[in-house]
């Protein structure tokens, strides 16, 4: 079920498709994506943990290693949970499309569009932070090579990784391959976090819009000033508007409960 307003969620849809988590994606390629992402993250976790074999176990070392290992392990668990049980996300998305179809008043549509644009901007800002972070990561590791080109010394500047890991191979010789592995792994983990996180924020913004619409309907009923109808007809019109507002409020509560369950 799609509506024309779903264009506001195109960025979220693209991110979830990249991670194989879009609830309407039925292709077999989805399973290949999941296997690839889990393999990449697990391989990097193993490289992190092997540092305990060759280095002295200290509080500082444990902190540095776990600061990378734990987030990646959480990414694997979250990705698996969403991958194998995406009915909840499908149900939430269906409800969101349905809400768009029952909103007819121009002011209410404007409210829904306002919050949806907030959601889209939030997603785009998070993508900007992602690109900036990856750019800093790449430049930081490539800085010795860049300086060797700009201002060469008698010998090449040493290359090293800012993220601790042990590969049991010559890091200088295989620097670019290890850097590529690091970039792909960090990108994968961040993309998983951003794709799921921004979609959940989109649901939250949508719920806020529904509560705002309910408030608008009830407030509009309370300011009913028509003088061309009888008092009974006026009271009936006010009650009907309040009932419509309460219905939207109940739909918003149902949506929030489903999102938080």
TrEMBL record:
Keywords: Cell membrane, Membrane, Olfaction, Receptor, Sensory transduction, Transducer, Transmembrane, Transmembrane helix. One of its GO terms (cellular component) is plasma membrane. GO terms for biological process: signal transduction. One of its GO terms (molecular function) is odorant binding. It is a multi-pass membrane protein. The chain crosses the membrane at residues 34-55, 61-84, 124-147, 174-203. The keyword Transmembrane helix applies. Pfam families: 7tm_6. It comes from the Eukaryota. PANTHER family: ODORANT RECEPTOR, ODORANT RECEPTOR 19A-RELATED. This is Odorant receptor.
């Amino acid at each position: 079920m799609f509506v024309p307003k779903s264009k506001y969620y195109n960025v979220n849809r693209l991110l979830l498709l990249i991670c194989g988590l879009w609830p309407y994606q039925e292709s077999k390629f989805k399973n290949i994506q999941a296997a690839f992402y889990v393999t990449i993250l697990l391989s990097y976790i193993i490289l992190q943990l092997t540092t305990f074999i060759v280095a002295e176990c200290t509080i500082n070392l444990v902190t540095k290693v776990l600061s990378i290992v734990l987030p990646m392990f959480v990414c694997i668990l979250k990705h698996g949970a969403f991958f194998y049980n995406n009915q909840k996300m499908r149900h939430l998305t269906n409800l969101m499309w349905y809400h768009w179809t029952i909103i007819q008043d121009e002011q209410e549509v404007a409210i829904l569009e306002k919050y949806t644009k907030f959601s889209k901007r939030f997603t785009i800002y998070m993508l900007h932070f992602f690109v900036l972070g990856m750019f800093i990561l790449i430049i930081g590791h490539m800085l010795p090579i860049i300086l060797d080109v700009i201002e060469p010394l008698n010998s090449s500047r040493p290359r090293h990784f800012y993220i601790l890991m042990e590969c049991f191979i010559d890091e200088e010789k295989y620097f670019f391959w290890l850097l590529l592995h690091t970039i792909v792994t960090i990108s994968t983990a961040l993309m998983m976090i951003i794709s799921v996180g921004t979609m959940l924020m989109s649901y939250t913004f949508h719920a806020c819009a529904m509560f705002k619409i309910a408030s608008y309907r009830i407030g509009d009923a309370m300011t009913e000033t028509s003088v061309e109808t009888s008092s009974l007809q006026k009271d009936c019109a006010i009650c009907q508007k309040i009932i419509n507002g309460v219905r939207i409020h109940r739909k918003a509560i149902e949506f929030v409960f489903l999102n938080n369950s």
